Amino acid sequence: MTYYPGYPPPPPPRQTNAWAIAALVAAFTFPPMAIVCGHVSLSQIKRTGDEGRGLAIAGLVVGYVFTALIIVFVAFMIWFMIVFDQSLRDYDRDYYSTYSMAVTSIQTGPGEQGPLRLTGV
Prior knowledge:
- There is one protein chain.
- By secondary structure, this protein is mainly α.
- It contains three helices and no strands.
């Protein structure tokens, strides 16, 4: 690089904040960590003047969106498991009550008392 006499040398290039890079990478691997890294990087960028404000904001936005999607997904899965469990319990109750009525009608003919009389379970 050539410097001309009478002109000051160009300022050194500003470096990109490492926390901002970590925020963007963490947004796709572990979104809650991206939120933490993004806020730390924004505070450091404000204090030091480093580059990477856009990376930090992108990491924050993606981190918040993915974290919200994960929370919605987990809530849906919990709701689904509760509904599925209740459905299985209803199915078992209906199946065994139908089964006991069928066994009772097979063992006792119309109007007669059989050796084994099952009632509703």
